[in-house]
Amino acid sequence: MGKIRGIDVTLYEKTRTGTDAFNRPVYTETPVTVSNVLVGEPSESEITDTTNMTGKRLLYVLGIPKGDTHVWTDRRVSFFGEDFQTVGEVTQGIEDMIPLDWNKKVRVVRYE
User: Fold this and answer.
1) First vs last Cα of the chain: how many Å apart?
2) Domain boundaries along the sequence of the chain
3) What is the pLDDT of residue 46?
4) CATH architecture of 7-110
5) Is the pLDDT assigned to residue 1 strictly greater than 70?
6) Per-residue pLDDT averaged across 30-56, rounded?
């Protein structure tokens, strides 16, 4: 039996670069590759909860590797040749209490 391994995911980091004519922030996105990200199927209750909160259908749950310091909230991510948007906050477990390589998770919907 092989070791569980994640895939490379492109996370688009946001940097504020100014404001628009309506005084709203303007951002640029910089792609960063994050290795060993697990891509999993959400539970039925996660799908229902996300649809009720956002009106969008939850497609995947990402397992984020221990030690990762990137901001995943409200970010665009790419994998499987498609773009997705993270929704909700990142949930995190106690690193030392989790035996595998991932201690955070974030939900993603189709990017629009």
Assistant:
1) 39
2) 7-110
3) 83
4) Beta Barrel (2.40)
5) no
6) 87
